[in-house]
Amino acid sequence: MTQISKNIIKRSQRFFAVTFLFFTFSIQAQTLDSLIIKAAPQFSGQVAIIKYDSLIYSFSKGWMNYPLQIPINKNMLLEIGELSSFFTREAIYDLIKNNKISADSSVANYIPDFPYKAITIEHLLNQRSGLPSNYLKLYHRYIYDDENIKLKDKAKNITNTDIVNILIKFKPALEFNPGEKSVQCNTNDIVLAYLIELMYFKPYETTINEMTAAKYPNSKIVANSDLQYTPMSLRASGHRKTDLAQMSVEESLQDFGFKYSDGTMGHHHIYANAESLAKYLDGITKAPVTYTGHEPGYNSLISYNKARTIVILSNTNDEKDAELILKAILSQP
User: Fold this and answer.
1) For 266-325, what is the HEC assignment?
2) Helix (H/G/I), strand (E/B), else coil: 3
3) Residue ranges of the chain with pLDDT lower than 50?
4) How far, in Å, CA of 171 to CA of 131, rounded?
5) Domain locations in the chain?
């Protein structure tokens, strides 16, 4: 057999392999469409699946803005809640890699007057610091001199600097000794985001947006706080389901009637579409594990299982939709 004949055979084999995969994924996509609609009929949002480094499934359904009857599509950006912490940690790991900070060093070495000398960078990264887990309670307790002011009447916006200053000034008690156990704590991410601003000499949002643009130029991932909000034309509104037929826009504390906004960063206020998030975070772990994120009017989920990365982003308050959709996807081979 000549080399030319061998090359023709190889090209033919690749063609039939690609053709087979195309039709297989097309059939599977149709099946998944039906399963998702059946599992969560009121779902509004996006789904993306990466397998062996390739996008094999993308799905969108529902509304970018329900009151205005604007439909959603796969390019819309949704708030990902606590999944934002993946990017916070990536920026910190870059600092460690470049010898700007040391993981086993005390946070007090980098944040002046930080009162908890035993807490290291690694404690923050691994959720083992013992810092008060509810930063909003710290805000309510310490940010006003008059604690008799009703919550609804409080009007001062909250930022990372506010929370770090509370830790420094009032030294609230730790919930456990650093390193003793691991407890999910958004305060850890707030302190990490504050540290990122100190070390990079720029706002957290700028660092994250430059990092994602450099590592994945075509990604649709944007860090953007509520306090320094830059309009995003593709931003999908968050919603609260009021009944089976209606949804109202609800995506911030002000939609709940509060007079202040939560502008803290590190654990939320990153927007993405499902495809970009799945591609960016694909392969971050080999172990089967699921992470979730929550924000007023939004829910997010990323699941690693059997060489698959599954991302489900919802722009409603119903977190059960993502769980039902994941269960339906995992029921398929």
Assistant:
1) CCCCEEECHHHHHHHHCCCCCCCEEEEEEECCEEEEEEEECCEEEEEEECECCCHHHHHH
2) helix
3) 3, 5-9, 12-24, 27, 145-147
4) 10
5) 1-31, 43-330
Distance CA 315, CA 250 (A): 10
CB 306 within 8 A of CB 249: no
End-to-end CA separation in angstroms for the chain:
39
Other Cβ atoms closer than 10 A to 126: 14
Distance separating alpha carbons of residues 12 and 8, to the nearest angstrom: 6
**What is the per-residue pLDDT across 215-270, written as a single tens digit (0 to 9) for each?**
888 888 999 886 555 567 788 999 988 766 678 888 776 666 666 678 899 999 99
pTM of the predicted model, to two decimals? 0.86
Q: For domain 43-330, which architecture applies?
A: 3-Layer(aba) Sandwich (3.40)
DSSP classification of residue 60: E
**256 neighbors 295 (Cβ within 8 angstroms):** no
Q: Of 85, 13, 16, which Cα lies nearest the Cα of 284?
A: 85
Length of the chain: 333
Task: Kindly give, in sequence order, each residue whose CB lies less than 8 Å from that of residue 207, ignoring residues fewer than 6 positions away.
Answer: 91, 196, 197, 200
Cβ atoms 80, 184 nearer than 8 A? no
Cα 202 to chain centroid, rounded = 21
d(CA 329, CA 311): 11
Q: Give the strand order in the sheet containing 308-314.
A: 54-61, 45-51, 308-314, 298-305, 289-295
CA dihedral 185, 186, 187, 191 (to 10 degrees): 120
Per-residue pLDDT at 245: 63
Token pair in block for residue 231? 């309009």
Q: How far apart are CA 77 and CA 271, in angstroms?
A: 5
What tokens were used for 60? 């969108």
